[in-house]
Amino acid sequence: MEKGLVMETQRQAEIFQAMQRPDFYPHPVTTVRQRETHISKVFLTGTYVYKIKKPVNLEFLDFTTLEKRRHFCHQEVILNRRLTRSVYLDVVPITFKDGRYHLAGPGQPVEYAVKMRQLSDDCSMVRLLRRGKIDKEALQELARILARFYGQAPTGGHINTFGSRETVWANCEENFRQTEMFAGRILDERMFQIVRAATRSFLRRWQELFEHRIEKDKIRDCHGDLRSGHVYFTDEIQILDCIEFNERFRYGDITSDLAFLAMDLDYEGYPDIAHSLLKAYVGYTKDQDVFVLLDFYKCYRAFVRVKVNCFRLQEGDLGEQERGRLLTETHQYMDLAYRYAVQFTRPTLWVVCGMPASGKTTIAKELAKTLGVKVFRSDVIRKELFGLQPYERRDVLFEKGIYSKGASSLTYGKLLLLAQEEIEKGCSVILDATYSSRHQRSEVLRLAKDMDTNLMFVECTCSEAVLKKRLIRREATSSVSDARLRHFEQIKARFEPLNEVRDEMHIGVDTERPLEQSMEHILSRDYVLECLQTAEAMKG
User: Fold this and answer.
1) 454: part of which helix (H) or strand (E)?
2) Can you give the pLDDT at residue 394?
3) In the chain, N or C: fewer CB atoms in 10 Å?
4) Are 223 and 152 in contact (CB under 8 A)?
């Protein structure tokens, strides 16, 4: 350590000793409690909190000079006032005169502290959750506050560069590079390698999605450290402790910010709360991509916590009990990162099914667009198999000609082969077909089991009146499907309910609702069900 930093550290040790005494403060104090991280020391006096930054340089932050610490104290106050009210009060100097340290007293400033109003720990989100004190309305309000915050946060230009795939890649690689030395020691070597490989694979595959997020102004000046322990429900919701020391950790995709809170809630044992909050947020913002990116960014955030803990464990000044606690916590975060990595790399076989004119193709196309995967439509495949053009109209009787049982068997068999090819590439895939018989669906179930992939049936439904109206409309328009109103009763009679499909593989969607609402429902519901399927597969 450089001589200057040694002196800074020694001086801080003296200041910290002085701040332990109640008589150090110019306001009544009975007891002083302390909290410490690898970058700061916090003193809680009952009425106010004083936070001092340590003179450290950790590549991603530099607090090594008094001027730098003063600057970042002011940044902390300015930035945290965005999501708090009357909490971040001021930056106060700690001075030295006549052999004593003073808080905002006489003498030259030798240190600076952020002064905050102390909030009760009992009002923190995590404490309230443990007591069952956060209801649906509170989550809705939190989602509304976050939606407003992100909607008003700066974006564009320089900020957008932090949402590019290249920047996200660099951030991830930095995490892996800085923690690689701990793999096989503190961290499970196999888990580390899987998380790194999965992250790289995702970034290679989703270039267009990262570009789309920039185009849609989803890269913002965010919070950067959004955790349940930083959210307080007082007379109003207060969100503390944003990142002030590094733009790269605060600028980024909104989903990355939200993912930190969702991951933290998973860690604390409240995945349902996390999902309800995210669903409410998407309801306010219509940002459905959140569910596509969520596991990737949750993995990233969990690994950040792994990295921070590894740094702390390396410091070597920990007692045995504290070291044991940190090791356990680190392993739990690593387990989470691994689970998320498996979830976002595990392919899903989507089956968008239902009666003709139930809206299958509209849903399948939108799903393919959102997920960036291929969709195979039975109407198109059927005509290709028999040498016909997609819009070549065939006026045939029910289950005759290219719609005979044999022809349908060929068509559905081809769909399975195409799906298998995509899954073998590690890709998800969508099949758009009626899938009216249990036999057809059993073949899909068998394929998903053999390929060890997630499976999701999206059953499109609407009223008979709407179905018939849509079928009548087809008479006057070009359509790949040859199903018409005269076939309706026979198709309806042959459609076997999806009773054999387990609930965790089945999403029902009413296509009379606006497409945006249907997609929000599918993606939100799918996220929960895919988590269940992946967890079941990992146990197996």
Assistant:
1) strand 454-461
2) 65
3) C
4) no
Residue 478 carries which DSSP code?
-
Cα gap 150→16, rounded to integer Å: 37
Cα angle 155, 211, 199; round to 5: 105
**In this structure, are residues 73 and 138 in contact, taking their beta carbons and an 8 Å threshold?**
no
How far is the C-alpha of 96 from the C-alpha of 122, rounded, in Å?
36
For Cα atoms 21, 56, 245, give the angle at the middle one, nearest 5 degrees. 100
Q: What is the pLDDT of residues 385-427, one digit of tens each?
A: 988 887 767 667 666 777 889 999 999 999 999 999 999 999 9
Predicted TM-score (pTM) of the model is: 0.90
State in Å, rounded, how far the first CA of the chain is from the last one. Answer: 50
184 vs 225: CA distance, rounded Å: 28
Helices (H) then strands (E): counts for the chain: 20, 15
Pairing of strands 100-103, 108-117: unpaired
Ranges under pLDDT 50 in the chain: none
And the tokens for 412?
A: 């559905």
CA distance 479 to 476: 9
Provide the CA 12 distance to its chain's centre, in angstroms.
38
- DSSP of 257-276: HHHHHHHHHHHHT-HHHHHH
Give the span between the Cα atoms of 27 and 103, in whole angstroms. Answer: 10
Pairing of strands 88-97, 100-103: antiparallel
Domains and CATH numbers, the chain: 3-118 (3.30.200), 125-345 (3.90.1200.10), 348-539 (3.40.50.300)
Q: Can you say how many angstroms the Cα of residue 286 is from the centroid of all Cα atoms in its chain?
A: 15
Taking all residues of the chain, what is their mean pLDDT, rounded to a whole number?
A: 93
Spell out where 118-244 has E strands: 219-221, 231-233, 237-239
Angle CA(243)–CA(245)–CA(249) in degrees, nearest 5?
55
**Percent of the chain residues topping a pLDDT of 70:** 97
State the alpha helices, DSSP H only, in 206-319: 207-215, 247-250, 254-268, 271-285, 289-314
3-state secondary structure 311-349: HHHHCCCCCHHHHHHHHHHHHHHHHHHHHHHHHHHCCEE
What is the DSSP track for 117-135?
EPPPGGGBHHHHHHTT---
Identify whether the C-beta of residue 163 lies closer than 8 Å to the C-beta of residue 211: no
- Which is nearest to 15 in space by CA: 82, 101, 83? 101
Which residue shows structure tokens 């300015």? 78
Count of all residues that appear for the chain in the document? 540
Q: Map tokens 């992250």 to a residue.
A: 199
Token pair listed for 438: 């249990």
